[in-house]
Specification:
mainly alpha; globular
Length: 281
């Protein structure tokens, strides 16, 4: 992989292909990107080891824009891994650096991260407001490449706040934006969230929900994101299990879970393990 190669050959101080006022150090950029690739590849422990190294190098350089970029990417990884406390800490650091140096986009991202963490802690309406504020701040800069995934975080917060209908509206916007822009990295999670939100409607259609989860599973498999594939498999397995389709449910989850060799203390893998044990009893 190109990222892995870049990480291997980089030596701090030897590569300065950026304007020190604005750009980001190529080595830290590569390691931060590799962190995200490792999580999607199904290696959460290695991802957070790489994250620690990226932050160490970014702080050592004393280059604010590089540090902000590293905090942004690693914050995305922390959210992907559902690490609430870590996300809160990274968001606080990101906002502090961004506000000090007037990096409006990074400040907005930090607010989005804070809102996601608030939603996980059950502070629903405040979470939604914080994410909306962050989205407005980030979008005002004209940089929208992360928008579909960030809109997914807003939809999740709306779900946790009991506003499933509003969440579905946001997801429709996110999927349309991804289609138009080509930023498809969050597609699997967006389809999975759509299934979750549809399940919460009073007139829920289980067939439509299952289609969403199976689409999420297929997209994750096609894109090679084992992190999202496991999460989609868990959602589909819960649906099938609730319908009494236990053997089918096991067949969905077991291969998605068995491919992991690390990260068994992470929320997604713990949830998958518990669910498999329930299906085996």
């Amino acid at each position: 992989m190109h990222l892995e190669r870049a990480v291997a050959i980089y030596r701090a101080g030897e590569h300065l292909p950026f304007d020190p006022r604005f750009g980001a150090d190529i080595g830290v950029t590569a390691i931060a990107g590799w962190t995200l690739a490792l999580w999607h590849g199904g290696y959460p422990n290695q991802a957070f080891e790489a994250a620690s190294e990226a932050l160490r190098r970014a702080r050592q350089l004393r280059h604010p824009h590089t540090l902000a970029y590293a905090l942004l990417i690693i914050g995305v990884v922390a959210i992907s891994a559902r690490k609430t406390a870590e996300t809160e800490d990274l968001a606080k650091q990101l906002i502090a650096v961004a506000d000090e140096h007037r990096f409006a986009f990074f400040s907005g991202c930090g607010q989005i991260f804070q809102g996601w963490a608030l939603a996980q802690r059950g502070i629903g309406h405040a979470a939604v407001q914080r994410i909306r504020e962050g989205l407005s701040a980030a979008e005002a800069t004209g940089w929208r490449s992360h928008e579909p995934g960030f809109l997914g975080l807003l939809a999740e917060a709306l779900e946790l706040a009991g506003a499933a209908g509003d969440g579905l509206t946001v997801l429709a916007e996110a999927l349309a934006t991804a289609e138009k822009s080509g930023a498809r990295g969050a597609d699997a999670e967006l389809h999975r969230l759509r299934g979750d939100l549809l399940r919460r409607l009073p007139s829920s259609d289980s067939t439509q929900v299952e289609v969403c989860f199976r689409t999420a599973l297929a997209v994750a498999h096609e894109q090679g994101t084992r992190g999202y594939e496991l999460r989609a498999a868990v959602s589909l397995t819960r649906l099938l299990g609730a319908q009494g389709r236990r053997a089918e449910a096991r067949d969905v989850l077991r291969p998605a879970y068995s491919g992991f060799t690390e990260g068994f203390d992470t929320p997604d893998l713990q949830e998958a393990k518990t669910l498999l044990e329930e299906l085996d009893t």
